[in-house]
Amino acid sequence: MKKTVALSLVLAASLGLAACSKPAAENAVDANAAAADLNATADETLGDVNAAIDNAADAALDNAAAATADNAANAL
After folding, report:
1. For residue 64, which phi and psi values (nearest 5 degrees)?
2. Which residues form the domain of 37?
3. What pTM did the predictor assign?
């Protein structure tokens, strides 16, 4: 008796899930949209990282030039 009730509950739950799920075509469209969004985000992030690297390199060069100028002034 318990097995019959449990089996009927499992059957009802699986039918409920099957009825509420999206068709495969809609899932594919959603996956493609998510992939496009991920690619756009990755491209934006790459641009931000490259800009940060450029800024850090410029700051390092400026600091090196300032230190060289200070050392030259102190040597005189």
Report:
1. -65, -40
2. 24-76
3. 0.51
